[in-house]
């Protein structure tokens, strides 16, 4: 179509997601999004929606991308829950080590920035953030853990996972992050063998 700019939606959404991830919602302007995506303001509005709508799309994209990786990692939990949890942490450690993405976790930083978000966006960020614990609980129960222990360990593993992103952003070395993971995985192994 003449006069209509063509672009790849996945590329544009990835660029917007990285911009929000790098700078946070409040510190990302439409000009920043325009530079990151290569689209002008009117194209952003007409193709992607307002800033809140675009941010929600980016949060969903992030949650799906890493959520799918977490699901694959935990898929062997019934056979080997310890290996599954280690693989779960490896997803985060690989993301932290990836130079193509910003430090930290878009979901965690969005929840922390809830006061700067509209109520509906803040609620959506919290819902997405909360998906890790039930995912982990289901995997641990499949691995033979009791309901109560699975809930406790799921909360603990989710909290450690988020702390890895924060510590990685603060400059912790890969060795330090792996040592933290080892403490949690060892505790899980002991609990499962009791």
Summarize the structure in words.
- This protein has helices at residues 9-23, 30-37, 41-48, 51-74, 81-97, 106-112, 119-129, 132-142, 147-169, 174-193.
- It is mainly alpha-helical.
- It has a domain at 63-193: Orthogonal Bundle (Tetracycline Repressor, domain 2), CATH 1.10.357.
- The longest helix is centred in the first third of the chain and has 24 residues, at 51-74.
Summarize the structure.
The protein is mainly α and 194 residues long.
Mean pLDDT: 94
CATH architecture classification of the domain at 63-193:
Orthogonal Bundle
What is the tally of beta strands?
A: 0
Radius of gyration: 19 Å
Task: Supply the number of helical segments.
Answer: 10
Low-confidence stretches: none
End-to-end Cα distance: 67 Å
Helix content: over 70%
What portion of residues belong to β-strands? under 5%
CATH topology term of the domain at 63-193 = Tetracycline Repressor, domain 2
Instruction: Quickly give the structural class.
Output: mainly alpha
- Main beta-sheet annotation: none
What name goes with the CATH superfamily of the domain at 63-193?
Tetracycline Repressor, domain 2
**What is the overall silhouette?**
elongated
Which CATH class of the domain at 63-193 is shown?
Mainly Alpha
H/E series: HHHHHHHHHH
